[in-house]
Amino acid sequence: MSLLHLPDDVLEKILSYISYDEVSRCRLVCRRINYVSKRVLNRGFHKVERYHAQCLRQVKSQLPRRESERRKHPLARHCDILTAVETRLSLLGMTFMKFIEMNLCCFIPGKVLDEIYKVLRYVTNEQSPVRAHEVLQELRDLSSMAMEHFDEKISPAFRKRKDPGPKIVTGISIFAPSLSHHSKLTSRHSSNDHKSSHKWKEEVKSMAQKQLASRKEIQFLKQRIGEMNKSHSELEKKVFELQNLLATHTEKLKEQDLKLGVVHHLVEIKTGVSPTMDVLPPTVTSDDTTTVTVTEVKANLQPSIKKRRQVRRINDRCRKRLKKN
Predict the structure, then answer these.
(1) Planar angle of CA 280, 283, 285, nearest 5 degrees
(2) Which terminus of the chain is more exposed, N or C, with fewer CB under 10 A?
(3) Is residue 194 scored above 60 in pLDDT?
(4) What is the b/e burial string over 102-122, where b = at least 16 CB atoms within 10 angstroms of the residue's CB?
(5) How is residue 292 annotated by DSSP?
(6) Between residues 222 and 302, which one has the greater pLDDT?
(7) How do residues 39-60 score in pLDDT, each as one tens digit?
(8) What is d(CA 252, CA 184) in angstroms, rounded to the nearest whole number?
(9) Which residues pair with 285 in a beta bridge?
(10) Is the dihedral of CA 265, 271, 275, 277 positive or negative?
(11) Angstrom distance (rounded) from CA 238 to CA 189
(12) What distances in angstroms separate CA 121 from CA 114, 127, 144, one per listed residue?
């Protein structure tokens, strides 16, 4: 039994003991090894993304929230290095993932994956790392060369192709079985496999359409929630303003009541009669021989009474607005 007759999972396990650079070089051996190596490289890119996200999450959870305090924190350099690695991963993803999803290629630069893992292990194990540009110099050189070579030499040929084959998913191939099984199938089985693969494609398309519709619906609901939150905050501001206005008017009303009480008290002292009586004599003479008529008392009290009525009207309007809101 030769090496090529082993299942794909066993071959992937064997290739996992070597570096990704060596895996990318093993693609030249034969088609079977090329197929398995592609799966290993694609899976390695997704693994390094998850590992980087985990490291960045751990570092950010230990940093303070204030930006000024973060710069002085011992983990500031760790965060700078991880954010720089994040930008490199996003650039690599934009360069390769489009063609990987179309099954036109795999993640070709395995040496870049090895360098990213090296940087991440250095950041997690080192308590006081050096500056970011010193750590990431090799990674920047390798990734930039890989992206330039891919854009100039490889991707132009891929753009001419229109009908991509079945996707190579990291871990399991959805539409195609392993090559060892292909050699044993008859022509009748191959036609059945073609029909089943067509059904799988239709199901995947329908699932993608449903997922897209659900995402649009979620975005619409998020927008509606944002609008409702804005309107709610505006109403709260209006209620707060009306409450402040009501408080100021009540204070003014209290002041007017105090002034009116003082005026009543002075009138009672001078005239000896309460000004609130409905029937008053035409003239009243006090002890100091000053004559105060009822009309003069009413004339003195009218401005304060008018102000009091105005304040009450404003308070009633404010209460009505608050009830409506």
Answers:
(1) 115
(2) N
(3) no
(4) ebbbbbbbbbbbbbbbebbee
(5) E
(6) 222
(7) 888 888 899 899 989 888 888 8
(8) 98
(9) 291
(10) positive
(11) 73
(12) 11, 12, 21
